[in-house]
Automatic annotation (TrEMBL):
Any Pfam family matching the protein: THOC7
Protein name per Swiss-Prot or TrEMBL: THO complex subunit 7 like protein
Record-stated family: Belongs to the THOC7 family.
GO biological-process terms attached to the record: mRNA export from nucleus; mRNA processing
Alphabetical UniProt keywords: Coiled coil, Nucleus
Source organism superkingdom: Eukaryota
GO CC annotation, single: THO complex part of transcription export complex
Subcellular location: Nucleus
Residue runs in coiled coils: 91-204
Length: 207
């Protein structure tokens, strides 16, 4: 066998013992799902190893095809790994977005609760203001303290005048009552005197 045959066989032995299985394990470990490509590579490798009756050129061409398939599988692994990493980053971004959204929801719920309390407080304040305004209207419709005091003083003055008039009338009534009593007494005395005189006169006539 020529030097080129020896090099090809040495390369094949080196690939089969190390590179091919290492890359297969790497690809399977990364979860690329390229099992069909690996199966095809293994079939090609077995066929290439069974190089009996093949020329050096065919062996070299088969070796280059194996390397090309390995390169394609490695590229597929790298592509899948890049996609996996991108998916992981996207999942992390989604997790962060979900965490941010949950935080915002908590903040919104807190804000809504605070606004609800503020609304209840505003309603109470408005109701109290309405009550105060109504009470103010009632108070404003009432006379002022000065007017009330003036009216009270006027009423007290009128009461004093009425009391004075009542006392005067009472005095007049007492005087008239005394006069009437005196007249009645005088009338009774006069009546009694007249009766006595009449009796005396009748008695003198009978003599």
């Amino acid at each position: 066998m020529s030097d080129s045959d020896s090099d090809s066989e040495a390369g094949a032995s080196h690939i089969s013992d190390e590179e091919i299985f290492r890359r297969k394990i790497l690809m399977d470990g990364e979860g690329t799902g390229a099992s069909q490509g690996i199966d095809n590579l293994l079939c090609s490798f077995i066929q290439w190893c069974d190089s009996e009756g093949q020329t050096d050129e065919e062996i070299s061409e088969g070796y280059q095809n194996l390397l090309a398939q390995l390169d394609n599988l490695e590229f597929s692994c790298q592509k899948s790994d890049a996609a996996r990493r991108a998916n992981m980053r996207q999942l992390q971004e989604y997790d962060q977005m979900c965490a941010d959204l949950e935080s915002k929801i908590v903040d919104m719920e807190k804000t809504v609760a605070e606004k609800r309390l503020e609304l209840e407080k505003a309603k109470k304040e408005r109701l109290n203001k309405m009550k105060y305004d109504a009470l103010g209207k009632i108070v404003s419709s009432l006379p002022s303290r000065q007017e009330s005091m003036e009216k009270l003083a006027k009423i007290e003055e009128e009461i004093k005048i009425l009391m004075a008039e009542n006392e005067a009338l009472q005095e007049k009534s007492d005087v008239r009552e005394k006069q009437v009593r005196l007249l009645v007494t005088s009338a009774r005395e006069l009546k009694h005197k007249l009766r006595e005189e009449l009796e005396d006169w009748e008695g003198s006539d009978s003599d």
